[in-house]
Design goal:
Helices cover 40% and strands 24% of the residues. With 357 residues, it is an alpha/beta fold. The chain has two domains: 161 residues, NAD(P)-binding Rossmann-like Domain (Rossmann fold, 3-Layer(aba) Sandwich), CATH 3.40.50; 184 residues, Dihydrodipicolinate Reductase, domain 2 (2-Layer Sandwich). The protein is globular and about 55 Å long.
Length: 357
């Protein structure tokens, strides 16, 4: 079996994916800027791991083009900067996977479908908790049914209990998504709406009642494609809904086009430390409510554990299957390629309600 490259292997997601792949009889290549950290990780997972130290995205692109690995897993955010050039750098026969939850990069990669088919390679974007968890519930509810009318998907992530610094990659992804303002699908087209609106209180199956707000995330795209709905809202329990954020966001959206502002904002957010605390329950959840023109309504949940563990399991499973040539050429979200059962393989459990008319 050929090499699987993990870009950003020394980050939180990269390390988790590396450990998932360890012992799977692959030849992992750990790629990143911290050579010492990568070598320590390689030593921890086995003698077969190889290290490639790079300084810039341009360096990574050059290494991918020269070495033509079997699979490339991209964990480097913001994906609006890294995803498209990384995917386009993959030569014919090299498959690409990323963890993006950014609408702009997900749409850009899905537009590479025809190009990927010609080059006999597979592109999978959104291989993480947000996009795939929401997508998989919609797919499970809509199986063998006609196109939906309205969909609302919501993610309720349970974060790790330990404190950790947000870091530049996650900071860039968060800010680039927030700068879009509010988005939803209306008449099958992306439309701007007030940011952090559509508040709804969800009663989670483990007993908690959670406030959720609409967010401009990749779940929006995945849910619309999965249910073929005219109207779609994506929401999250982690949306910043305070009046201060509501006033700051339009200004941030206008300033985001300026590199100096982007760099400054990313540095500020990257240094924020998420403190340990008691999570809500012990599980993460994804919820979908789907309505059809007939008046039929169905809703369901996907229960997972901590989001990092689920994300790493999903990404690693996809990479393993692509390395074994179990995919098909083209550009996909995870569920569109491997179906909602991929969530069960990653430790998730569906709870689907009976339809309500």
């Amino acid at each position: 079996m050929h090499e699987v490259w993990i870009l950003g292997a020394n980050g939180r997601c990269g390390r988790a994916i590396t450990h998932h792949l360890a012992g799977a009889k692959l030849s992992p290549v750990l790629v990143g800027r911290d050579g010492m950290g990568l070598r320590n990780l390689a030593a921890a997972v086995g003698d077969d791991a190889r290290v490639v130290t790079v300084a810039t995205i341009k360096d990574v692109i050059g290494e991918i083009a020269r070495n033509a690995p079997k699979v490339v897993i991209n964990t480097i955010g913001p994906f609006g900067d890294s995803a498209l050039p990384m995917a386009q750098a993959c030569p014919a026969g090299t498959h690409y996977v990323d963890l993006s939850n950014e609408i702009s990069s997900i749409l850009a990669l899905l537009e590479l479908d025809a190009e990927a088919r010609v080059a006999d390679r597979t592109i999978v974007t959104g291989a993480g908790f947000g996009v795939f968890a929401a997508e998989s519930v919609v797919m499970a509810l809509c199986k063998d049914l006609p196109a939906a009318w309205r969909i609302r998907v919501t993610t309720v992530p349970m974060m790790p209990a330990a404190s950790y610094r947000i870091g530049s990659a996650m900071a860039g992804s968060i800010l680039s998504s927030l700068a879009l303002g509010g988005l939803q699908y209306a008449d099958s087209q992306l439309a701007h709406v007030p940011a952090f609106g559509a508040m709804e209180v969800l009663a989670v199956p483990d007993g908690a009642r959670i406030e959720t707000f609409a967010v401009p995330s990749g779940e929006l795209v995945a849910a619309q494609r999965a249910g073929r709905a005219d109207f779609v809202v994506a929401a999250s329990s982690l949306a910043p809904s305070s009046p201060l954020w509501r006033h700051m966001l339009p200004m941030a959206a206008r300033l985001w086009q300026f590199r100096v502002f982007r760099n400054f904002a990313c540095r500020l957010l990257a240094d924020v430390e998420l403190k340990s605390g008691a999570p809500i329950g012990t599980n993460s959840w994804a919820h979908a409510r789907v309505e059809w023109p007939s008046g039929t309504i169905r809703q369901g949940w996907l229960r997972t554990g901590e989001i990092m563990t689920f994300t790493a399991s999903v990404a690693a499973d996809i990479a393993l299957r692509l390395a074994r040539d179990e995919g098909r050429p083209g550009a996909y979200t995870p569920g569109a390629l491997f179906g909602p059962d991929l969530a069960i393989r990653a430790g998730g459990e569906f709870q689907l309600d009976h339809e309500i008319t």
